[in-house]
Every structure is written in structure tokens, then in C-alpha cells.
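Structure request: Acyltransferase, Paenibacillus campinasensis.
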Amino acid sequence: MKFRVSAVQYHLHTIQSFDDFARQSEHYIRAAEEFEADFVLFPEFFTTQLMSIGDAQGHALTINDLPNFTDQYRELFQGFAKRYGMHIIGGTHVIRREGKLYNVAHLFYPDGRIAEQAKIHITPSEITGWNMGAGEGLEVFETEKGTIAMLTCYDIEFPEIVRMAKAKGADVIFCPSCTDDRHGFHRVRYTSHARAIENQVYVVLTGTVGALPTVDLMRANFGQAAIITPNDIPFPPKGLLAEGELNNDMIITADLDLDLLYQVREKGSVTTWRDRRTDLYPDWK
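Returned structure:
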């Protein structure tokens, strides 16, 4: 099976209203539609742009205000998915549950369903700066194009969680990300390649670009989208189907062929998934 994916290098800048956010989001979705994409991925924390709208006194909103937009965000992207007939991974949005904040990836299905995956591993800055809570479970999601997982930014740096996603049947890992410097960006990028090699899966990665000068922890962004493959003969030599230009406002698109994954798992140059030594180290059950 083949299907097409697009990844958005979302440009963060100060806006005046929720309608500004809606128009910018739809611009990228319409571009993905023109490329006939089946899936479109937005970055982690891209809805922090809403914090730049500010309050009646002209002060930027805080992270505690962001969950107030949850219903509008979900209704907006649910409508986009239905109207454009595509699966939208709506980056992540901060929600509040029982008084605690969580950074949650959202999958919007074309039929109106919404699925969620909370970020499992939380960075020190997310804890100290925003008091963010950690997700407690991993899910994979069935779609008409196959089984996917949503693992956010720091999550991809942990081999165990991606191994679990593959053991549960995921062939594609969508990784919304948000990094503020080269070091953070390359940690996520390099480990995305490692996870694709280890598990013989595709990884679709993207990040925020631009800046929100009035929003704490979002004043700097360093991002680039990439559509990453295992490193074997059926795939491009560098394990890259497509990548964006660093820190540019843009969208990238490529076709994923699941049959190639199945081929290399069975008779590739290496068969990393099949050759794991579960007699020496435990596997997910």
C-alpha cells in the first residue's frame, strides 16, 4: 500500500485573533490537498501561537490560558479533516485534565473522529517552565492507510517507546516536534533516523519555525521537516524521502510505500526487527 504524507514547517508569529490562526492553519492544509496528501502533520506546540493574541491589557496569555482554546481547536481541525478528506495530525495542543496540563497530540480522522496521545516523556524545561504532566500510556491508531503512532519530540529519543509502538503494529511514526536551538533539533533528528533503522518503520518529523517574542519559552525556534526511511537498498541512500529548508515557512510531501517496509523486514540487507535478541533483553508483550 502507498499513501502520501505532508509535513508542515509551521511559521510562528504574533497574531491578533483565533481567526488568524485558523486562516494560517487552513493555508497549509489546502497546500497539502493540492499535493493530494492523505496525511498532514503539524508541529508540537504550534497552538502556542494563540497565546500571542494577548488579553484585554495587551499582555500575552500564559500556558494556563491555552487550554481555554481546546474546544475551538478541536472543532476547527475536525472540520478541516472532514472538509478536505484527509487525516490531520494537528501537532500538539495543551489540555487540562483534573487540574494538570498535558501536551497532547491529536489525530483528526476524515470521518470526524478524534484520537489523542499525550506526550510521554517531558523535558526539564516543560516541567520547570510550564509544570507539564506526563502521559501514562501508549496507543497506536488504525487508519484506512495502516497503523500509525504519534510520539512527540522528546519521546522519539527513547528507543523503548518506539519499539513498543512497532510491536503494537505501527508502520509509521508521526513525530511533531518543537526545538529552540541546533542541539535540540539534532537530538530529535538523529534519533528519528535511529528509530527508523532499529524498527524498520517510517518516521515523519516536523518542527516549528519563526518566533513568538511575547510568549515565554517560544521566543526561539529551530526546525526542519523530514520524511525518514530505514537505511536499505529500496530506500534513498541517506534514509530521506524529503526534507525542508532549515527554518523556512514551508511544507514537504512524499509517498510512503508500506510494501517496501515488509520486504526489508523479511529479506533486507539487515533485518533489525526480526533479529532482536528477546532471549537476552525483554520485548513488549
